[in-house]
Every structure is written in structure tokens, then in C-alpha cells.
């Protein structure tokens, strides 16, 4: 249906919300597109409680210790690079 609306856009100028909601793949395609082509490249977040982040692959600390988890204490500000998420080719 979306293809028909695009191909014959001169026929329909206003698309009702119910029509857009009834398109089954539009939400999925929009979600996947926003995951790959992120509109916001980075975000700053604040932890509202103590959290332990489990890593998919271990990393080395500054002193060389292998870490599988990272502790984030409450009220700490965290920089999140959204543009690098959803780009692991191994998953």
C-alpha cells in the first residue's frame, strides 16, 4: 500500500493516521533505519541507581586488568556513543 501511495502521490495529499498505522512494515523499516542511520550521534545520561553493565566482549582496564563488567554508580554522568551501537558484524 505504501508503494501505491508513493507512486500515485498526486491522488492522495493527506494520509490519515489510521492508514499509516495499518501499514505493517513501516514501523519495522523505520526502526531499523534509525538503528543504522542514527539521528543523534551521542547522548549524555545520568545513572539513577547503581548499575552493573555486562559487556559482550571483555576489555582491558588502564592497568591491564581484563574486565567483563563495568560498575556505574548512582548519579554519575555517562557518555553514550549511539552511532557505534548496532554495528557489530559478529552479532
Provide a descriptive summary of the structure in words.
GO terms for molecular function: heme binding; iron ion binding; monooxygenase activity; oxidoreductase activity, acting on paired donors, with incorporation or reduction of molecular oxygen. InterPro entries: Cyt_P450_sf. The protein folds into two domains: about 1-35, no CATH class; about 40-90, no CATH class. The chain has helices at about 1-5, 15-20, 25-35, and strands spanning about 40-45, 50-60, 65-70, 75-80. It is elongated. The mean pLDDT is about 80. A two-stranded antiparallel sheet has the order 1-4. It has a two-stranded antiparallel sheet with strand order 2-3. It contains three helices and four strands; from the N terminus they run αααββββ. The chain has about 90 residues and is an alpha+beta fold.
Amino acid at each position: 500500500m505504501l508503494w501505491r501511495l508513493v507512486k500515485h502521490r498526486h491522488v492522495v495529499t493527506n494520509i490519515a493516521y489510521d492508514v499509516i498505522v495499518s501499514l505493517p512494515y513501516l514501523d519495522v523499516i523505520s526502526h531499523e533505519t534509525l538503528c543504522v542511520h542514527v539521528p543523534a550521534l551521542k547522548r549524555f545520561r545520568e545513572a539513577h541507581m547503581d548499575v552493573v553493565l555486562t559487556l559482550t566482549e571483555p576489555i582491558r582496564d588502564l592497568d591491564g586488568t581484563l574486565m567483563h563488567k563495568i560498575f556505574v554508580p548512582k548519579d554519575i554522568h555517562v557518555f553514550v556513543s549511539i552511532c557505534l551501537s548496532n554495528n557489530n558484524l559478529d552479532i
